Amino acid sequence: MNDARSGEAALAASKYHEAIEHFTKALATNATAVKYYINRSTAYQRAARYTEALSDAEIAVVLATKRGARELIKDAQFRRALALFFLGQFADTEHVLKIVKKLDEKEKMLPIWEMKVAGKLRDLPEDDEKRKVTIKDVPDVELPSAPATSKPAPTEEKEAEKKDAAPKLVVPTPANKIKHDWYQNNDTVTITILAKGAPKDATTVEFEKDTLSVAFPIQNSADYNFALDPLYAPIDPAESKYRVLSTKVEVTLKKATPGVKWHNLEGDRVVEADKDESKTSIPSHILTGKTNESAPVYPTSSKSGAKNWDKLVVQDLDDKDDIEGDETSFFFKKLYKDATPEQQRAMMKSYQESGGTVLSTDWDNVGSKTVVPEPPDGMEAKKY
Q: What spans are recorded as compositionally biased (Low complexity) (predicted)?
């Protein structure tokens, strides 16, 4: 009832689309209410939806005729006549207006529409199809059924729609088809393991300073393991993170030293320069480097010019009676150990970026630029 009243208010306020919505809701609860069809037909006609207006008017005519309600029959036939007029069926309009006149000669709107339709027919050629009556007094239309009192059983079509709407299971990627990719920026390295269906609650990721381990179950009760030991460079485990999605496992490693460019995910084994883990580690090929018997003179950022490392090693070791291992290795260890953290960073960066041809302790000089390889005279730097 509230929808019907709201529809009448909207119709009176010329809000035709709103009126249509309200009367449609009202008819959903009372599918045989003649007045609702008449009112919705009026709203359709004023909204220029003439086919729908005719359909509602014809249903109203049939329902009103069955009831024998003369006033409702007249109103329904009048709405039918107007819909036919706007659809260009002028002979049919004239026929229905005659029915309305028989029911109520005093219908105040009748003379106006009789004049309009007469003018349209007068302008038509004698053989025009619109001069022919094609309708019956009471139309043959299928009446809507009353709303069911109980919920109907779902149709096969609706059941199929439910199945389509149900979430589809993701088939896990076989172990031999799981691949990975990676990229980096100044602060992080992101590794993407392309594996569908990795379970969130059963995926384990372990971060260590120099290692990474990822494991999750796959088909046939097997486990997939992805390990990097050692990593190319140290990371910050506390700031590293991961997430498990339906199509991949994404791991983000936080670089311990921002700005260090990774050339691979894995690197050489490293030897700690000091037992204190807070200090940076140097790759083994730096601290235990296998050098030629006579080391070349390397360029340096020192203001005093290039250094002959062999001479410096000898001078530094003159007073030492017991030296274990290679003298050059001992010198590098001592040089790195006694350096400040800033000098250690400069040594790491200059050595790695120059391919081992430059070793600088001046961070102000090398920290903000890429160290270019400077091979000794007669030698040529190669890119790998």
A: 144-153
